Amino acid sequence: MTEPTIYQHLLSQGLPRRDFFKLCGALAGAMGLRYAAPARASGLPETLESDVNPLTSMVARALQSKPRLPIIWLEFQDCTGCSEALTRSQSPSLVDLVLNKISVEYHETLAAAAGYQIEENKQSIMKQYAGKYVLVVEGSIPSGEGGAFCTIGGRSALDLLKEAAAGAAAVIATGNCATFGGLPKANPNPTGAKGVWELITNKPVVNISGCPAIPEVFTGTLAHFLVFGALPELDSLNRPKTFYAQTIHDRCLRRPFYEAGKFANTFDDEGARKGWCLYKLGCKGPTTYNACATIKWQGGLSFPIQSGHPCLGCSEPNFWDGGGFYQGQSAPIGRPELASVGAAAVAGIVLGAGMAASNRAQKHAAQAEAAPEPKKPGEEPKA
User: Fold this and answer.
1) Based on the number of CB atoms within 10 Å of its own CB, is 308 exposed (0-12), middle (13-18) or buried (19 or more)?
2) Can you name the residues that pair with 75 across neighbouring β-strands?
3) CATH classification of 248-363, choosing from 3.40.1280.10, 3.40.309.10, 2.60.40.10, 4.10.480.10?
4) What residue spans in the chain does CATH classification 4.10.480.10 cover?
5) Per residue of the chain (383 residues), what is the pLDDT tens digit?
6) Could you tell me the pTM of the whole model?
7) Alpha helices, H only, the chain
8) How far apart, in whole angstroms, are the C-alpha atoms of residue 165 and residue 135?
């Protein structure tokens, strides 16, 4: 029996045709697509109307020709924060369509079933869709004491991970715990926690780092695999370049104050009240790569720096052990190859402070020059 395409599956779920095109447009946006090849170059059948923009049309054609993508979602040493964030995404309809109507077959937290029933379902899915499903992992994997620190049904997390990864087409690690070990890996790392990509080396692994990961970044990455059948272009830490190519500092709304040398020194001083740069309060924005400043949270409402708290660098490796959260950093956490960025950040502070001092001095000099000379006792005012 031929597997129904994603388009056919959505129609069977009652999704109107108009809403299907809206979904395609949302998926194109979630992937951060900037261009699209002509429809004829896609090699897909031209059976959908072309009265939509090229990006939406390309996604629509792909969804019409591709079978439904099953997802197996495993959780290990985690707080379920990434799952919680995903269910509270700024676009719940998109998340619901991607995860519920299209994909997720197994998720321990969101599933109604439990125990033997849900484990039997997982085994059935791995067998039925061998080599076709996407494995999503949330939480770090303990390697100490034979994996005894995290077991499910009497089996270690490491054993369960390797079993599920063996039949996966790709692996997505979501959150800092799954990507780089996160909090469980913090010194002295008593459980021997590791990230997925340290343990799975024979499968493509994409890291969606963050604590928690930004829901739209996860959805965009999954959508890319859904549409193109391949993971997006990755950086040196296996993170999608679409979302991790720039530092938070690059797009920060407080950067003008950084450039002007205006910094908050405490959380209750004049600088903090005026929204000045939080670098001296430990902000890791200049050395942290993520899309927080552009995508933001809660429907694009805000993100930590905008709300008055410095960035903790939670999308970088070993951020828990990179010094105090409220101490300024001169080099990227866990990124020695980017030390020049940290040096540039320090240089920027010095230069910005120097320019600010120079500007103040020039302003005071100009004010003094423009001010009238003080009148001597008994002297008549000049005409």
Assistant:
1) middle
2) 138
3) 4.10.480.10
4) 248-363
5) 577 787 887 788 787 877 887 778 777 776 765 443 333 333 333 444 445 567 778 788 877 877 778 899 999 999 999 998 887 765 555 556 665 556 788 888 888 888 888 899 899 999 999 999 999 999 999 999 988 999 988 899 999 999 999 999 999 999 999 999 999 999 999 999 999 999 999 999 999 999 999 988 988 888 888 888 888 899 999 999 999 999 999 999 999 999 999 999 999 999 999 999 999 999 999 999 999 999 888 778 899 999 999 999 999 999 988 878 888 765 444 444 444 444 444 444 444 444 444 444 544 554 555 455 555 555 555 54
6) 0.76
7) 6-12, 17-30, 54-65, 81-87, 92-96, 115-128, 157-166, 176-180, 196-199, 215-228, 241-244, 255-259, 270-273, 292-295, 339-370
8) 7
Taking the C-alpha atoms of residue 93 and residue 19, their distance in angstroms, rounded to an integer, is 10
**What does 324-355 look like in DSSP terms, one character per residue?**
-TTS--SS-TT-GGGHHHHHHHHHHHHHHHHH
Amino acid type, 115: G
Record the tokens describing residue 109, joined without a space: 């937290």
Closest CA to 258 of 275, 240, 245: 275
Pairing mode, strands 155-156 and 151-152: antiparallel
Pairing relationship of beta strands 141-142 and 133-138 according to DSSP bridges: unpaired
Per CATH, the number for 67-243 is 3.40.50.700
Residues near 137 by Cβ (< 8 Å), separated by ≥ 6?
Answer: 73, 74, 75, 76, 161, 171, 172, 173, 174, 178, 196
